[in-house]
Amino acid sequence: MAHLWKLQKPSPLQWISRVGQEEVVRLINNPTFNGRNALCCAKIPNLPPRRGFCSKESHITKSASVGSQLGSLKSSCFHHRMTLCWVKTSSLVHIRGFCTDKTPKDLQAISRSPRVVAEAQAALVDYLHSTRGLQFPDAEQMSKHSPNFLAKLLKKVENEEDTARALTRFFRYHPINEFEPFFEGMGLKPSEFNSFLPRDLMFLSDNEKMLENYHVLCNYGIARGKIGKIYKEATEIFSYEPGILGSKLQAYEGLGLSKTSIIKIVASSPILLVGDVNRKFVKVLEWLEDIGIQLDWIWGILSEKNSYDWSRMLVILQYFTELGFTNQEFGALIRKHPDFLLDGSGKMVLLVSGLLLKLGGTKKELFGLFSQFPDVQIGSFMKNMRRGLIFLIEIEMDPGDIQRLLLTHTEVFGSYSLKKANSILTYLNVGRKRLCRIIKDDPHQLKKYVLGLKLNRLPNSGESEKSLGEKKKFLLRLGFVEKSKEMEKALKVFRGKGSELQDRYDFLVKTGLDPNDVSNMIKLAPQILNQKIDVLQSKIDFLVNNLGYPLSSLIAFPAYMSYTVERVKLRFLMYTWLRDRGKARPSLALSSFLACSDKIFAKRTYLQL
């Protein structure tokens, strides 16, 4: 992508275009552009996939892997001291084993006592410093901050009573690969540094350049435990000839930066030490000074855990200037919302802008949004915008109305995290069409649908009374007693018109179920009639053709129709695996492995292993 920056003043709007917004330049320069149909004719970018709506191929692959892995998990569970746990991700249940990348807190679980750990660390320090000749601070860092490597050593002498003496004897005849504790002491995990281990070297002294550059960073004041990130992101600096790395650090001091600031900048953006002084970084410094931002203030809020793209930051600075912000206005904006610049190096600003431009927003509207931006992090704002867009799509609002609402009430959608559409429809006891009308009439009603707030049922409208009458007639035809608890329960749950409920009832009868049985099923689980016919068909097909259960099993457990196919598939795979190994009854009722929560199901499964 380097060729994109050959122009001296790249347009940030062109930058947005290159990440998926081809028409951004045209839109931003044409305030009168009519984007009314943008939502219908173009895919909204950067929307996360809906949880629980993964592709079928993805579910099949995940499900198949569960069965193939469980056999080996059981036999090796106690040998490797692994713990089976169920992790709920949306509607899926996965199995995970904790056996790698242990932290220092895990040492007591691996070794016999803290005393053994201390003896092992002392023996390793003595070997690295006295025998191998490493500097004492290096040896101490490697021994006290490499728990995974230490655990491997303890395993070698786990049957010995005197750990220190046993390790001393082990080191005498079995030289260790010093790069493993060295990289781990830097703060890297085994999975991160495995690719960095040299194939033909075991001793650190054989790589003098790496050690010397490592010491340059340490002596400059960078914490040893943070050098791992520098090594991972800018490995080439550890091959510099003597004096080069130090001169690069001094070059940044020449820009007027304090030593403390350079330490933080280098720890967060190691790539600055590669090549000459980074020109984009220098331009960002100059621009920040022009808009009145004190550099010490911006360095104070940098996070060493994050990495920063100074080229993208420069684009953001240019972008706000093109929107019409003066230096004074922009400086005040950055002081109030530093996350505009630091959250993803400005990525969230570009995503918000790209989404609004795609919906037909104008340059003037973007200026108004950012100049009066609500008191919320830009990352959370974008997340809430996505969530609001998905909500409007799920309640089947007209695309033109979605576009209008998102543009006219952007602050509302970005400031509040909405509940899921199905939850709101259930709590309010309304249909999608009525909810769409409510939101279009007063978009500020969305503030009542925020996560954490309690929703109350809405009073019935005139149309609702008519629909309620149809539902009552439908239930009376099925044998429900008027004003009975069963009828009240069904009426509270039912959504949709009475004619739709009748069609779904007729479908269940046509599958071969007795009408009386279907009526009893509805009394037990009235919510099954809230699903469309094609959904009911797919669940019945899966029950009969994939699971091998007879259609009559729905009579005893009609709530099966309320669960997603993905949930049923994963639960059944686990049950099948246990059944094949004699850990579960051969003909288990559907309710036995579906009705319980994921936590209870995981607990029962673990007890069976």
Automatic annotation (TrEMBL):
For the keyword Transit peptide, the answer is yes
Tell me the InterPro entries matching this sequence: MTERF, MTERF_sf
Q: Which GO terms describe its molecular function?
A: nucleic acid binding
Q: Does the keyword GTP-binding apply?
A: no
Task: Give the record's keywords alphabetically.
Answer: Transcription, Transcription regulation, Transcription termination, Transit peptide
- Domain of life of the source: Eukaryota
Biological processes annotated in GO: DNA-templated transcription termination
PANTHER family per record: CGI-12 PROTEIN-RELATED, TRANSCRIPTION TERMINATION FACTOR FAMILY PROTEIN
Which family, according to UniProt?
Answer: Belongs to the mTERF family.
UniProt-recorded name of the protein? Transcription termination factor MTEF18, mitochondrial-like isoform X3
Organism the protein comes from: Phoenix dactylifera
